[in-house]
Design brief:
Layout (H helix, E strand, L loop, with lengths): L5 H26 L26 H5 L4 H12 L7 E7 L5 H4 L8 H6 L1 H8 L3 E7 L6 H10 L7 H4 L11 H7 L4 E6 L1 H5 L4 E7 L9 H7 L2 H6 L5 E6 L1 H9 L6 H24 L5 E6 L15 H4 E7 L15 E3 L3 H8 L22 H22 L28 H24 L5 H27 L3 H28 L2 H11 L4 H16 L3 H5 L1 H22 L10 H31 L12 H8 L1 H23 L7 H23 L9 H43 L6 H4 L3 H27 L5 H19 L8 H18 L17
Parallel strand pairs: 1-5, 1-6, 2-8, 3-4, 3-5
Antiparallel strand pairs: 2-7, 6-7
Helix pairs in contact: 1-20, 17-18, 17-19, 18-19, 22-24, 24-25, 24-33, 25-32, 26-27, 27-28, 27-31, 27-32, 28-29, 28-31, 29-31, 31-32, 32-33
């Protein structure tokens, strides 16, 4: 290896990179697995017992059937008449179930109960059945809608698809309804139109990301309500209301607009239910109203993670009056969101989607006969058993003959044990055998209540076990692929390190000595930066450390600032000779400025750390932002206005610290002032959230965007050329006319120094404009953290530009600024969970 040639070196390097790419690919595909799905759509074969030739000829024949014939076929083979004629699916985006049903056996808060009197009366009278429907992560709209209509759990990568939804091609209820000729109408979130293009006869879609709009976005849905309820030409009406989710994004759960938005939704429920009762009295068909939410929300109004507040979605089934059985549930009963799909499929007589892992909600079929209830459980069991056969090859009828587990005395649930395949096969056959025995007794007119209860229990045992295993299977990650991926990455790193060692041995002695001279005087801050990188890499191996990553960044930022502070104190020089007194005073003045700046950076960092209580484990502890929110919005508004004024004044101040104050610099300073005043005017004139939708607010923001954009592009492209040219012309004039008395500042102005000054101006402009822009996009409570971050960044910039002889190495300064940026990210209330992604500034 010591005599390695250039060709071998190249080959080894390429090999290491290929191994690294393979390892990274293995890790990514294993960490974000794509769950296997059954292709195609369920047909009449789903109403028959699973066998080895499911759907081979049935689906081929059904494809040519017209919708009405297909509907008749399903009703004939399912042996279950549809319980309802029409379905109204009302989706209230972001509504936590505890707002309607309470939490842990306790009723909702008084304000929420008073906001929804009609809905609460339906629950109290037994005409509505409410559930806490547990939503799977990620708790964003698109994958949750898929789960409700298909019964399948999506992958984590569905988060990316949420921003650009594509047509949904897997088996789902919307497609099944379409196949039997249903006419469907949708008003609301346009995600439905992206997922199911061409399925809706009428539709009016609205954008889900314009979160500043809490009023018009729901009016665009409700304006169609009266007309649609008066029509009888639809079978499925979808109403997706976004306003409540937008209220949460803007003001959190405790927003002043939350109660009024709940009242608005309650009024919609009242109108729909009143119309359902009128249609029932006029014998115009039976309509089921299902009120659901796609996910909940955190205290701040965000969502995306897997906390209880985010996964606590609502499933409220409001039935016609004569279908209410009087069976009252406790309002903290829990189901899974995927249970909605098989329940609706069985209630309306269509096949359960192929990839469904949900379980029938038994209380929703309590109006059926015992035979029909068992038939519904049987159909659900057949569908899950087919899915198990696809996931477990050894469960295939050709490999594992399930009838080998049946004994003469009949199987019992307690006897089911062994491998997964044997367990599921045994549980499935237990339920099937008990069902057959009960059916035989019914034929001979024997009233076997105990046998019915045992059969239901056997079906529930199989369904719950199968659903639980399938849900875990959908999110499991292949450990072997993860291990191979990590091993390949480590191998690649070792190869590259070995190559660097070999190259180092081949470098001429003089160059090695130069490198050694550069590397020899390691200082404490340099050692700490490398140590910090090592600490960060090690911490990424623990999920708990990832959840609390903000502590690491705050520690790294404050410690490196403290080391710079120590170095600045040590740079004081009081032991020089009298002849050097002027240079000593100048040096000490610079050190004093650095000490002041670094102390200010440390002070701001400590406030930032306590502003938001991030992470997972200690979010319940008080923080500065919580105290301010409890104190009242007037204090937050004052802080927001003060922060805006200080930010653009600081930008102007730092800009005019530059010695070469050209006209260009003056113009840039004027743009700082104009931008700051526009932001200030926006705050003072459009501070009220409900008024932020008017055209004046939009126009003022557009003007600000134009100023920021034009100024930034112009300065970046022009300033590096203009300032050196002006400097050269100015120096030439002084040399030509007044060479004997050239001022010192003119003597020091060279094209190189002018270029550095232009970069200084560009950096100052970026920092100031970024802070002003973030003041518009961030929540008002984050105005002070933005000011503190602005002070820290400008402080570092000034401290690094005046280091003199004890200048830090550039990579150390870059690392310090990177640490500051990461700490600032978490200081604004962000974390490593999707729930802290703030979309309140969208479309502003």
């Amino acid at each position: 290896m010591s005599s390695i040639s250039c060709t071998k070196l190249t080959l080894f390097t390429i090999s290491a990179l290929i191994i690294q790419f393979i390892g990274l690919s293995l890790f990514v595909f294993a960490f974000f697995p794509v769950k296997p799905l059954l292709s195609g759509y369920s047909g009449s074969e789903s109403f028959r017992r699973p066998n080895c030739n499911d759907g081979v000829d049935a689906n081929r024949n059904e494809a040519t059937l017209p919708p009405d014939r297909r509907k008749f076929l399903y009703q004939e083979v399912s042996e279950m008449p549809p319980s309802y004629d029409r379905l109204i699916l009302m989706v209230i985006d972001g509504l936590p179930a505890e707002f309607v049903l309470g939490k842990k056996g306790q009723p909702p808060s008084k304000a929420f109960m008073e906001a929804m009197p009609y809905t609460q009366s339906l629950l109290a009278n037994g005409m509505a059945v409410g559930y806490h429907a547990v939503a799977a992560a990620p708790t964003v709209t698109m994958p949750r809608l898929k789960a409700m209509v298909s019964g399948a759990i999506g992958g984590f990568l569905d988060v990316a698809s949420n921003f650009n939804s594509q047509a949904y091609s897997d088996d789902n209820l919307i497609a099944q309804f379409f196949k039997i000729g249903w006419k469907m109408v949708m008003h609301g979130d346009n995600t439905w139109l992206k997922l199911f293009p061409g399925f809706f006869a009428r539709h009016d879609g609205v954008s889900s990301f314009f979160v500043k709009d809490t009023v018009q976005v729901d009016r665009n849905v409700s304006r169609h309500l009266g007309d649609e309820l008066s029509r009888d030409d639809w079978n499925l009406l979808i109403l997706h209301y976004l306003g409540l989710d937008h209220v949460g994004h803007i003001g959190g759960r405790s927003s002043a607009l939350m109660a009024s938005k709940l009242s608005e939704m309650d009024e919609v429920v009242r109108k729909i239910h009143t119309n359902i009762l009128q249609n029932l009295e006029n014998d115009q068909g039976r309509t089921l109203l299902v009120v659901v939410s796609d996910h909940g929300m955190t205290e701040n109004g965000n969502h995306g993670g897997s906390s209880y507040e985010e996964t606590d979605s609502l499933a409220l089934f409001i039935r016609p009056k004569n279908h209410a059985s009087g069976h009252t549930l406790s309002n903290h009963d829990t189901i899974f969101q995927v249970d909605i799909a098989p329940t609706l499929a069985l209630l309306f007589g269509v096949p359960i989607p192929k990839n469904n892992i949900g379980v029938l909600i038994s209380q929703m079929v309590d109006s059926l006969t015992d035979e029909q209830k068992l038939r519904a459980l049987q159909l659900n069991s057949w569908q899950l058993f087919r899915l198990l056969q696809a996931q477990l090859p050894d469960l295939s009828c050709r490999k594992l003959p399930c009838d080998s587990f049946i004994t003469d005395s009949g199987p019992t649930i307690s006897e089911c044990k062994g491998s997964k395949e044997k367990l599921f096969c045994c549980l499935y056959l237990n339920a099937a055998a008990l069902h057959d025995a009960w059916s035989a007794e019914v034929v001979i007119k024997s009233n076997n209540t105990e046998g019915y209860g045992t059969t239901v229990a056997a079906y529930h045992e199989f369904l719950s076990r199968a659903s639980e295993w399938l849900s875990h299977k959908a999110t499991d990650r292949p450990i072997s692929s993860l291990a191979f991926g990590v091993a390949a990455l480590i191998t690649s790193c070792l190869i590259l390190l070995k190559l660097l060692f070999v190259i180092h041995k081949k470098v001429p002695a003089q160059e090695i000595q130069d490198v050694d001279n550069y590397m020899k005087p390691w200082k404490l801050d340099e050692v700490f930066i490398l140590l910090g990188i090592l600490i960060l890499v090690i911490s990424m191996g623990s999920s708990s450390m990832i959840e609390e990553e903000h502590y690491i960044w705050h520690f790294l930022t404050s410690t490196i600032s403290l080391l710079f502070f120590r170095k600045a104190i040590q740079s004081f020089d009081l032991n020089k000779a009298v002849g050097d007194l002027i240079s000593v005073e100048k040096k000490n003045y610079t050190s004093g400025c650095q000490i002041s700046l670094l102390f200010l950076i440390l002070f701001c960092g400590r406030i930032l750390k306590g502003w938001h209580q991030g992470g997972v484990n200690w979010t319940n502890l008080p923080d500065i932002s919580s105290w301010l929110e409890q104190a009242g919005s007037q204090y937050i508004n004052l802080i927001q206005i003060a922060s805006c004024v200080i930010i653009f004044m600081l930008g102007i101040f730092v800009l005019f610290l530059l010695q070469s104050k050209t006209k260009v610099v003056m113009v840039i300073g004027l743009s700082f002032l104009m931008s700051g005043l526009l932001v200030l005017q926006h705050f003072m004139k459009h501070q009220n959230m409900s008024a932020s939708n008017n055209k004046d607010a939009t126009l003022s923001v557009q003007v600000l965007y134009a100023i920021l954009g034009i100024t930034t592009v112009t300065v970046v492209l022009v300033l590096p050329w203009v300032m050196p040219k002006n400097t050269h012309e100015k120096c030439s004039k002084w040399n030509l006319y007044m060479s004997a008395s050239v001022p010192t500042e003119i003597q020091n102005m060279t094209p190189i120094s002018a270029l550095k000054d232009s970069l200084y101006v560009i950096g100052c402009m970026y920092i100031t404009f970024w802070c002003l822009l973030q003041l518009l996009l961030q929540r008002p409570i984050n105005a002070m953290p933005l000011l503190l971050l602005n002070v820290q960044i400008l402080g570092y910039m000034l401290a690094f530009s005046s280091c003199g002889s004890h200048h830090n190495k550039q990579w150390v300064e870059i690392a310090a600024l990177y640490n500051l940026g990461m700490a600032g990210h978490f200081a604004l209330g962000n974390s490593n969970t999707l729930a802290t992604i703030d979309v309140a500034g969208a479309f502003i």
